Task: structure prediction
Amino acid sequence: MERACSGYRGDPAVELNRFTKERSTGLAGPAWLTARRIGALDLLATSDPPSDADENWRYSGIDALDFGLLAPPSLPGTSLPGTSPLRATEPATSPPGASPPFTPVTDLVRKFGISPSITIVIRDGRLASIEVPEDGPPAIGVATCTQPSADLLGAGDVPTAFSARYLATEPAALKEMPPPEWPDLFTALHDAFDPGPVLIAVPEGTEIDKPIAVLQLVTGQRASNKNAPDDSTADDVPVTITTLAIELGASSRASVIEIAMEATTLNAGESREGASGTGDGAGSRSVVLPATYQYLGEGATLGYVGLQILPGDYWQVGRLASCVQADAKLSSLSISLGGRYARLVTESMLAGRGSSSELLALYFGNGSQVHDMRTVQQHGGSHTKSNLLFQGAVGGEARSVYSGLIRVLNGAVKSDAFQTNRNLILSDGARADSVPNLDIQENDVKCSHASSIGPIDPDQVYYLETRGIHPDEARRLVVTGFFREIVGRSPVSGIGEWLQAKVERHTGPSQPAATQAAGDAGGGEAGSDAPVNATGQGRQVTGMSSGGE
Amino acid sequence: MLLAIRSLVAAASGAPPGSGPILDGLDLELEEGSVHALLGPNGSGKSTFAHVVMGHPGYEIQSGSVSFAGVDLEGLATWQRARLGVFLAPQQSTPVPGVPLREAIAAAVSLRSPDKPHATSPEVMISAEAQRAGLDMALLSRALNVDLSGGEQKRSEVVQMSMLAPRLAILDEIDSGLDIDGIRAVTRRLRELVLENNMAVLVVTHRTRILEELNPRRVHIMVHGRIVDGGGMDLARSIEATGFSAYR
Result:
């Protein structure tokens, strides 16, 4: 990777002086995991903190993060006081065969319209509990490197041999993943201090109808009191690292919904993600570094929804990587609603002949939120097809960045790659940027990309107004309509209604009066390599045209 | 008088001075329960007139007045005019992606008379209206005006109009793109609404075919933003024969 001359901003070893080698090597895990961590430590030692000046961090606003305040996650066993949202969360004490005590968790999942086949609760990156419905768990394996899963499940028909294997060797869901497209301080930090992946494995030929729910709970609390490391201070920004590895055996089929939220939300009942106005542009209470890996064996089918509803003072730098083997089908939807700054790097590798991926994302920013979406669609196998649609809306002072790369490797003939990014700007202070890139190393391929950025079409609002619909309601209809295609294509059914309602609530009645001008409409789409950007000044810029004011 | 337009002068909002108004001293009156027709050459300002009555923010009234049922419309927003009972079927229906026709109508109907529950549920009414207008039922669930043929657009406008039950319907080229059956279905529904609701209709058109079906009480000729002549169906027929050259 080519690194921009960002200007030296201090010795990372000083800035991150509490992320010590001792702390990393002190983490539990098998030899392969330790090796991974040590490799990452080497990268960390040579990584500068990213800067807005780096091409890969352009428009991100990452300069506002004070790296000096980052504090490592608490060590295993030092459970944080004050937050115990789950009843009886000590898995070791759950006797095998006992009825699952965690119904509140599944109830919460149901609030999102999901009826899960199993609910896996991960707290600060560590497996906390597993809840199975009354009719028994699906035939899947759930494991960590440190905790055998059978005890957690309390049921006999879950493959347990798998756990033992997992302890010994690195699973394909990690080993086969493409390396990060942009290795940097965050990917290094993630891998060096990874508490250990939680693995969901669907055995060969197994088909699971109901979605597997994964709750990624973040306590977001700095270590304190007796559990505090000696060097902690009140301004510490705790870093939480999570890894979820999803591995589908050949010809298996499953769907997974992963929900990232603050642990206290479980008690509060309602999340307080960024759009609720907490994104005041100042504080950074917590940093979350999630990684989700999707490995699809030959002919497997995976539907995945990632829902991020973290509070408005959280920073997220996440990675969603996939490796799709021959004739396998990935359908993935990332929903980004929370966080002060939420970055998600989606990297898809279509490795096997005839594999396909549908990559969808919906992001919605308000207040001073930043949604930063980067994507890489890699085609390694022939006759592969990737179809990407990322759609976002920004209001208030919020910003969004989309940067997408299509890469067709030598030999990936007959590849089809599509990339579309559409952005809706809801206020004068909001801004969206969209940067498409192509890297085509093969001739016999079909690639296209399109992006659009623009305000709500005033002609659409006017038309609805002529029916007696108030402009606020008209705008709400237009914005929900804008997202309807994505919502309708969700690979996990049920969440659509929740999402629809959420979008409607985000498009509150407090929109500024739209600049309605006759004939100044249109949401153009064009393909070009030129970066496009626009603010909410009623300006519409598409790839090809300069679209002046 | 339901609609009274007096010496109306209007131009595009923010138009440079000296560019000249689009509507230039227009007078027009329309009684309740009456059908009028507005004819005129291309570019005479017919569609602009329709949008000015509806309150399109792209136009501003420079002088004169527009009153509806005794209410001065200037200063009222488009949605307020609509709720007073003005309906416009525009020449081009704006596509609204992702918003099903059914949902838009439901939103409009619930807002119009929130306190007055309908005897029949809107859902049932929409289906019945679609049948009357000859609109494919499947289109009710599809996005508003997205990928519709000209004729489907017009039938959709008639369904929406019937659901909203306005006091005045301004129909801008409602006959364009419609086949013979479509024109019959639309005019039949218009005549019913005139009889049942005492609805007034202003039909903007280029063809006498629809006028023969509707038999308007009065035909207005508009040239260069003002009404230059008026009469009955005979006038419409003579225009059909000789064109507008006499007025230029």
Notes: The interface with chain A takes residues 12-14, 54, 56-59, 77-79, 82-83, 87-88, 90, 93-99, 103-105, 107-108, 111-112, 143-145, 160, 164 of chain B (CB under 8 Å). The longest strand of chain B covers residues 3-12.
